[in-house]
Request: fold
Amino acid sequence: MDMQPENWSGTAVHPVGLVIRQKDPNNLEMPFDQLDGFITPAELFYIRSHFPTPQLDPATYRLAIAGAVRSELRLSYADIRTMPSRTCIATLECAGNGRVFLSPPAPGAQWQLGAVGNAEWTGVPLSVVLERAGLADDVCEIVLEGADRGIPKEEPKPPGPISYVRSIPRTRAIESDVLIAYQMNGRDLTPDHGYPLRAIVPGHYGMASVKWLTSIVATTRSFQGYWQTSDYAYWDNSAGTPIRRPLAEMKLKSQIARPRMYEILQPDRPYTIFGAAWAGGTDVAEIWISLDGGASWVQGDFLDPINRNAWRRWKYDWITPTRPGRYTLLARARGADQRTQPDGHNPNFGSYVIDHPLPIEVFVNAP
Ligand code: MTE
Reply:
């Protein structure tokens, strides 16, 4: 008998699901050891939502474009679907991915390795809509607002409910790969991933890719909203006085998908260590693996070519040690800009930007 897993409607489903980090609103991560293809299937793609998923009806839905523009626009979902479209592949990583590795523990959802995924996004370039509206010369940022609302979980909390709003610099907003997306991997967005429309800002941490997009406002002053001053911000000390700046581009990072934490391996056997590496603002150029907790490093091989803002899967064909014991594996990427991942977490990023090599401990059995 065919033992295909089935869902209630009788169609075959992917055998694994997501791991709950917070329920209500949905915060679910991919079991990263399930990493397989270059593209993450939608069913395995992490969900990070601050408020309950809004139910939006595409028939009545309107996207408003306002602020410092020559003509304000109100576009229907059908309008967007008939405009020139573009498809691009982009890795989204939540800025808090890997938080469980921080010591002492940091507040917030205790993401392991799975708040990251790589998908193919289709939509209208934001630049097309901005051109149609006509940006004023002194516009410096584009503010993107979602339909979801609520009171944030983390202190300091604002005095009442707020929506999810974030800005991106004008210079980034007008690049042709920034999308008002309606499809993920060739299918309409699911409600959790932003149906009917969401922003996709390739190369930036996931927080920039505003879901359930309802309003786009061109502004002539830097936007100081909650989600880029209080949350999703860091301390920049470069000018002498610490100031809050919004998180933006993803830092160079690599992760081991297999072996899993505390996996038990047989001695003196071939084992392919497998993972992925990504970056915003540069390309991933090299991958180095340590099999001895960072004392020495060997170079791994990429499975994917360079594709700006998409991850590169990599592997290293290992012969497991003959000596039984506990081994710490690490992966460290080098960027085309010659930078490598740092040794440790930079506290100026608080509970975000966990971009240092994350240790995976394994046990090798006695023969
Ligand atoms: N957009 C809205 N409107 N509300 C949100 O809570 N979460 C952001 C971003 N866009 C969020 C949002 C964060 S923090 C991330 S990491 C990504 O969406 C996650 O996108 P996904 O749930 O499709 O993986």
Q: What stands out?
A: The pocket of MTE is lined by residues 45-50, 92, 94, 146, 148, 164, 193-194, 206-207, 209-212 (CB under 6 Å). The mean pLDDT is 95. The chain has two domains: 12-246, 253-364. The two ends are 38 Å apart (CA to CA).
